[in-house]
Amino acid sequence: MHQSRRYLLISLGLILVILVAWLSLRTSAPVVPEAIKHGYSEALAAARAGQPGAARQLYQQLGRPDLSVKRRVWLHAELPNYPSPQALKLADADLQNEAPEVRLAAIKSVVGLVPGGQRSLLLGPLLDDEDQAVRFAAINALLGLTPDELGLYFGPLQQGIDAWEQVLKGQPPSAETYAQLARLHLHNAELKEAQQALERTLQLEPGNLPALVMQIEVLDKQGQSDGARQLLAKQLQTQPDSAYLQHALGLWLLHHGQSEFALLGLSKAVELEPDNKDYRYDLATTLHGEEEQEAAQKQLQEIVQRHPADRKARVLLINYWKESGQLQNVQILLAQLEQMNPDDPVLQQGL
Q1: Is-above-0.90 flag for pTM?
Q2: Helices vs strands, H then E, count in the chain
Q3: How far apart are CA 194 and CA 201, in angstroms?
Q4: What contacts 333, CB < 8 A, 6 or more positions away?
Q5: Is 56 helix (H, G, I), strand (E, B) or coil?
């Protein structure tokens, strides 16, 4: 009798252990509703197309614990167009994701969501990340910030840069290695070293236009504006149909106070690559600076039409229309923005 009672108690104890384990599993792995489980493709398409409800769908998907690494990375590419406290919370959570690829994607999201001075608090801790690629991405995201903006992370960033320089110097020579070294030297205002690294980049890869444009910036900072202008002119003679170089020429002229001539280069870049929203955006802001309001608005309207999810162009167009008193147009764009993302900070400002 006693024995059967003992077996019964043991059996009950085992059932209790199993029940507790099952309940703890249930609480640690929340069940994802079927509708959300099957809504990934729709959410990604809605976010890319700037459709009504896009932000809500995007947040729902990023909140899923069962999402694959690849899918999470793709969603992060769209997140900067849908800013809100919730978006920042999701990006911040993924900075601690166990997959390095997701942490890298979350760094890009934070860069897109948070102005330079404020991002150091979020990204600073990743300067100690166990994954080298994540550490280096965090460094790149913080390059160019002032010591005040970096605050506590000024020292750790300098240590990270020194460590990265050592890694780069230990690697086989390549254009990519030298170009990254140049970026680090430029941040440290080591202009001579930056120039040498860029010369090596261009020896190995003469067609590396970003390195060429960086070299123009370095020459400018050394007070060699004539040398910079000649280098740019020489490249444009050999590649007059390079939208990248035309855009660089426009920005260089703008930087040197020649905005009328800058418009020619920027317009040419847009003509050569009409779908490039960054070129069109720079043309719009330059036109606005020259008090050509209507032309500036047209360029931004074109971006919004071609890329409905592009929040940066949409917000600037709202501001330009406010300036010129076209409040009906402002209301239309704000209504569209509210449909896409009711928590967008711009909507709190109203008219």
Answers
A1: no
A2: 22, 0
A3: 11
A4: 304, 314, 317, 318, 321
A5: helix
Under DSSP, is residue 95 helix (H, G, I), strand (E, B) or coil? coil
What CA–CA distance (Å, rounded) separates 230 from 239? 14
Please, are residues 38 and 60 in contact by the beta-carbon 8 Å criterion? no
| Unique residue bearing structure tokens 């003469």 | 206
Name the burial class of residue 36, with classes exposed (0-12), middle (13-18) and buried (19+) by CB atoms within 10 angstroms of its CB.
middle
Give the separation between CA 332 and CA 207, rounded to whole angstroms. Answer: 45
Report pLDDT for 115: 86
Query: CA–CA separation, 119 vs 150, rounded Å?
Result: 9
Contact between 277 and 300 under an 8 Å Cβ cutoff? The reply is no
Tens digits of residue pLDDT in 212-253: 999 999 999 999 999 999 999 999 999 999 999 999 999 999
Backbone Cα Rg of the chain: 26
Contact 318, 332 (CB under 8 A): no
Q: Burial letters for 261-294: b for 16+ Cβ neighbours within 10 Å, e otherwise?
A: ebbebbbbbbebbeebbebbbbbbbbbbeeeeee
Distance CA 22, CA 26 (A): 6
Residues 6 or more apart whose Cβ sits within 8 Å of residue 177:
168, 171
